[in-house]
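User: I'm writing a short report section on ligand binding and want a predicted complex to refer to. Could you take this sequence and magnesium ion and write out the structure as tokens? A short remark afterwards would be nice.
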Amino acid sequence: MARIIGIVNQKGGVGKTTTAVNLGAYLAEMGKFVLIIDLDPQTNATSGIGVDQSAIELSIYEAILGKVKLSEIVQPTMHETLRIAPATSDLAGLNAELPNMERREFKLHDALLEVRNDYDYILIDCPPTLGYITLNGIVASDEVLIPVQAEYYALEGLADLLQTLQLVKENIRPEIQILGAVLTMYDKRNKLSNDVLQELYKHFPYYIFRSVIPRSVRLAEAPSFGRSIAAFDSANPGAKAYERLAREVLGTESSTRL
Ligand SMILES: Nc1ncnc2c1ncn2[C@@H]1O[C@H](COP(=O)(O)OP(=O)(O)OP(=O)(O)O)[C@@H](O)[C@H]1O
Ligand SMILES: [Mg+2]
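Assistant: Sure. The structure tokens for the complex follow:
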């Protein structure tokens, strides 16, 4: 059965999608069967891994509504064992539609039941809100990975996120775990980056991944070529960092963290 990992932070632009795509790519390169769920109406994971919007007839939107099976929307990528459940901007309507539905928090969870046995890892790229779409992403997850950007306001909002996760744990999915935080866009020449790391160590009550993702122009360029950093520039320090992160995530397979 797949480990389902939600990549969540309601703060925008902290590296959620970059982490979903590149962690997914490296887990696949390490021999795992990986499915990325693009749960963001911005569709950045979909385009970033090279799936053209015009090639999408059915998306995660239809799968969440139960109109099609999730396996019917899955598309291949240039990594042999990496697949994506693509999104289109249709998904934006879901935040308004979900509140009126039965099992409104469980729509994605229920849709994933069908494919759970087909993958080792399912990574869910959540949008930058704490609305119903993200709630579905969290509730569908066994574990949550939180990218934290190495910048001044990064830790603001983290308390809200942890509180939301605690509420989900208490009321909806008691078995949900916090896998940990990963620091992104780290600039070692910038003292601020180091301060954020120190603050995170001081105040974040969960695991912090040893692999810190550096700020790297190549990581930002790769999506415009529809490629993971593994396919685009595997020698880049950003690539090496995501490779290490993938290895660290593999290392948590047998242990449980909270
Ligand atoms: N380590 C990095 N170094 C340089 N640029 C990065 C890095 N990580 C992400 N970026 C760039 O920063 C921007 C935001 O990253 P990304 O899209 O991964 O964040 P996000 O949290 O998914 O954003 P959103 O909240 O809008 O979904 C993108 O342009 C991305 O290419
Ligand atoms: Mg994103």
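A remark for your report: The chain has a mean pLDDT of 95. The pocket of adenosine-5'-triphosphate (ligand 1) is lined by residues 12-18, 40, 42, 44, 127-128, 184-185, 213, 215-216, 219-220, 223, 238 (CB under 6 Å).
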